[in-house]
C-alpha cells in the first residue's frame, strides 16, 4: 500500500523560510509560483531573456528575474521548463549560479532518471509532481482544495530533504488532497508507460483504427466520429468516477455484453506483450535517447509524426463537427497542458 501524506504531516514554515526560484512560467510554473507565494513562501520567477511570460508573471505581483539571477538568490530551485529543454537550461544557466547547498526540485523525473542532469552531491534533489495540469492545480488551490501530488527524494544532502519536499507540497495545496511517496525511477517509468501505452498512444491509435474501420466499410465519417471519438469522454468520466464497473453499470446491457465478448478480440494478449516491449524501452533508456536525440537534431521525427497525426481524416471530420458544439471551447483553446503529462 502506498504511503500517503496530508496537511498535518507537513510543516509549512520550512518552505516559508526559503527563497524559491520557479524556472519557467508555463502550465506548471504559474501554478507553483502563485500557490507558493499565496502560502507565504518568498518566490522569484526565473525567465529567459525576452520571455513572453515576463509580463504575465509581473501582472500577478510576482518578482521576476533572469534565470541566472533567480537561481543565484534561491535556496530552492524548481525547474519547470519543458523536459527536453531542462538539460541545457541546467548546464548553462542554473548550475553555474546555484548556491552550493540549494535544493533542486522537479515536477517530473525524466532528466534525473536518465542522467541528463547530474546534480552535485551537496544538493537535495526532490520531486513534487501534481497529478493534474497546472491550470487545474491553480484553480483547485484558489477554491480551497488541492490536486494530489506524488513526492520523491532522490538525493538527501541536507538530511532534511523529505521535510522540505513535504512542506513544498503542502504550500502547493497538494496535501489537502493527499501526497503519495514514490521514487524518481518509479514516477518516470510509470508516467511514460501510462501515456505511451494507454492514455495517449493507446487511445489515439484505438480511435484511429475504429474510425478507419467504419469509414472504409462505407459508413459516414460524421457518424463514425460520434461513435468512436465523441462519446469517449462520457465513458472516461464514468470510469474516473467509479471505475470500469460504474461504466459497465451505466451503459446498456447490450454495450456491457459487447464489452465482454468483443473487447478481448480487439485487445488481444499480444497487445500486453507489446506493452511489455514498450516498458522495456522505457526502462533501458532507449525511448528517452530516441526522444532527446531527435529533439537535439531539431525534432524532425517528432514534427513528421505530429503532422501525420494532424492530417488523419478523423481530425478533419472532428474540426467541422465540433463547430456544432457552441458550448465547447474552440480547438485553439486546447493548447494548454494535458492530464497525461
Ligand atoms: P511548459 O511547456 O508549459 O513550460 C513553458 C515555460 O518554460 C515557459 O515559461 C517557457 O518560457 C519556458 N521555456 C521553454 N523553453 C525554454 C528554454 N529553452 N529556456 C528557458 N525557458 C524555457 O511546461 P509544463 O509546465 O508543461 O512542464 C514543466 C514540467 O512539469 C515538466 O517537467 C513536465 O513534465 C512537468 N509536469 C507537467 C504537467 C502539465 O500538466 N503540464 C503535469 C505534471 C508535471 P517562455 O515563457 O519564455 O516561453
Ligand atoms: Mg453508441
Ligand atoms: Mg508524462
Automatic annotation (TrEMBL):
<feature type="domain" description="KARI N-terminal Rossmann">
    <location>
        <begin position="2"/>
        <end position="182"/>
    </location>
</feature>
<feature type="binding site">
    <location>
        <position position="191"/>
    </location>
    <ligand>
        <name>Mg(2+) 1</name>
    </ligand>
</feature>
<dbReference type="InterPro" id="IPR013116">
    <property type="entry name" value="KARI_N"/>
</dbReference>
<keyword id="KW-0479">Metal-binding</keyword>
<feature type="binding site">
    <location>
        <position position="51"/>
    </location>
    <ligand>
        <name>NADP(+)</name>
    </ligand>
</feature>
<feature type="binding site">
    <location>
        <position position="252"/>
    </location>
    <ligand>
        <name>substrate</name>
    </ligand>
</feature>
<comment type="function">
    <text>Involved in the biosynthesis of branched-chain amino acids (BCAA). Catalyzes an alkyl-migration followed by a ketol-acid reduction of (S)-2-acetolactate (S2AL) to yield (R)-2,3-dihydroxy-isovalerate. In the isomerase reaction, S2AL is rearranged via a Mg-dependent methyl migration to produce 3-hydroxy-3-methyl-2-ketobutyrate (HMKB). In the reductase reaction, this 2-ketoacid undergoes a metal-dependent reduction by NADPH to yield (R)-2,3-dihydroxy-isovalerate.</text>
</comment>
<dbReference type="Pfam" id="PF07991">
    <property type="entry name" value="KARI_N"/>
</dbReference>
<dbReference type="InterPro" id="IPR014359">
    <property type="entry name" value="KARI_prok"/>
</dbReference>
<keyword id="KW-0413">Isomerase</keyword>
<dbReference type="Pfam" id="PF01450">
    <property type="entry name" value="KARI_C"/>
</dbReference>
<feature type="binding site">
    <location>
        <position position="48"/>
    </location>
    <ligand>
        <name>NADP(+)</name>
    </ligand>
</feature>
<comment type="pathway">
    <text>Amino-acid biosynthesis; L-isoleucine biosynthesis; L-isoleucine from 2-oxobutanoate: step 2/4.</text>
</comment>
<keyword id="KW-0100">Branched-chain amino acid biosynthesis</keyword>
<feature type="binding site">
    <location>
        <position position="231"/>
    </location>
    <ligand>
        <name>Mg(2+) 2</name>
    </ligand>
</feature>
<dbReference type="GO" id="GO:0016853">
    <property type="term" value="F:isomerase activity"/>
</dbReference>
<dbReference type="GO" id="GO:0050661">
    <property type="term" value="F:NADP binding"/>
</dbReference>
<feature type="binding site">
    <location>
        <position position="191"/>
    </location>
    <ligand>
        <name>Mg(2+) 2</name>
    </ligand>
</feature>
<feature type="binding site">
    <location>
        <position position="53"/>
    </location>
    <ligand>
        <name>NADP(+)</name>
    </ligand>
</feature>
<dbReference type="InterPro" id="IPR036291">
    <property type="entry name" value="NAD(P)-bd_dom_sf"/>
</dbReference>
<dbReference type="GO" id="GO:0009097">
    <property type="term" value="P:isoleucine biosynthetic process"/>
</dbReference>
<feature type="domain" description="KARI C-terminal knotted">
    <location>
        <begin position="183"/>
        <end position="328"/>
    </location>
</feature>
<feature type="binding site">
    <location>
        <position position="134"/>
    </location>
    <ligand>
        <name>NADP(+)</name>
    </ligand>
</feature>
<keyword id="KW-0460">Magnesium</keyword>
<dbReference type="GO" id="GO:0005829">
    <property type="term" value="C:cytosol"/>
</dbReference>
<protein>
    <recommendedName>
        <fullName>Ketol-acid reductoisomerase (NADP(+))</fullName>
        <ecNumber>1.1.1.86</ecNumber>
    </recommendedName>
</protein>
<dbReference type="InterPro" id="IPR000506">
    <property type="entry name" value="KARI_C"/>
</dbReference>
<dbReference type="InterPro" id="IPR008927">
    <property type="entry name" value="6-PGluconate_DH-like_C_sf"/>
</dbReference>
<dbReference type="InterPro" id="IPR013023">
    <property type="entry name" value="KARI"/>
</dbReference>
<keyword id="KW-0560">Oxidoreductase</keyword>
<dbReference type="GO" id="GO:0004455">
    <property type="term" value="F:ketol-acid reductoisomerase activity"/>
</dbReference>
<feature type="binding site">
    <location>
        <position position="227"/>
    </location>
    <ligand>
        <name>Mg(2+) 2</name>
    </ligand>
</feature>
<dbReference type="GO" id="GO:0009099">
    <property type="term" value="P:L-valine biosynthetic process"/>
</dbReference>
<feature type="binding site">
    <location>
        <position position="195"/>
    </location>
    <ligand>
        <name>Mg(2+) 1</name>
    </ligand>
</feature>
<feature type="active site">
    <location>
        <position position="108"/>
    </location>
</feature>
<comment type="pathway">
    <text>Amino-acid biosynthesis; L-valine biosynthesis; L-valine from pyruvate: step 2/4.</text>
</comment>
<keyword id="KW-0028">Amino-acid biosynthesis</keyword>
<keyword id="KW-0521">NADP</keyword>
<comment type="similarity">
    <text>Belongs to the ketol-acid reductoisomerase family.</text>
</comment>
<dbReference type="GO" id="GO:0000287">
    <property type="term" value="F:magnesium ion binding"/>
</dbReference>
<feature type="binding site">
    <location>
        <begin position="25"/>
        <end position="28"/>
    </location>
    <ligand>
        <name>NADP(+)</name>
    </ligand>
</feature>
